Amino acid sequence: MLYQQLKSLPEGDLSRIRANLVRQETLHQIAMDLGLPACLRLGEGETRSGGQKRPSILADAVEAVIGAVYLDGGFDVAQRLVQQLYRNVDINPQMQAIGKDAKTELQEWLQARKMKLPVYSVVAVLGAAHQQNFDVECNIEALQLVQRGLGGSRRAAEQSAAAAMLQLIKSKALS
């Protein structure tokens, strides 16, 4: 779909736009448009904590639906479904600018300077099983810098730690 609509763009820009299309916010909106929250069967704790409205769960559910259609009907059927799901999403070259999240930006910054990628590690998991918060550390060994971030998922905490690292790098004028 991307290549058909934006074939003049370089591969890196298409990758960023693709990342935009499969990010949690986009998939969450698709789930809401489908009325997916009403179709979910969740555990008691997840239901009590509002899991049917949680963007990460709804994004995962959209991916699961696409995967199930692929397994049941094959590639062509899944492709038609994806095209239908994205019919109301405006796919355009400007999507690349907002598609760069903190982890991607940090990775590209390090790669441009021929440095190793950061290492992310979970320092702690806080809270009850149905309402966990993750404390993640982002370590850039070459710069001897460590930053931490919190989030409702490991991925969100990694993004938070990467954003903190970018802010630190920019404040130290290491760019």
Q: β content, as a range?
A: 5-15%
Q: Mind telling me the CATH superfamily name of the largest domain?
A: Ribonuclease III domain
For the sheet with most strands, the description reads:
3 strands, antiparallel
Strand order of the largest sheet: 1-2-3
Order of helices and strands: HHHHHHHHEEEH
Total domains, how many? Answer: 2
CATH C-level class of the largest domain: Mainly Alpha
Low-pLDDT windows of residues? none
Rg over C-alpha atoms, rounded to the nearest angstrom = 19 Å
Number of strand elements = 3
Number of helices: 9
Mean pLDDT, nearest integer?
Answer: 89
Helix residue percentage: 40-55%
The CATH topology of the largest domain comes to Ribonuclease iii, N-terminal Endonuclease Domain, Chain A
Give the distance, in angstroms, between the N- and C-terminal Cα atoms.
36 Å
CATH architecture of the largest domain: Orthogonal Bundle
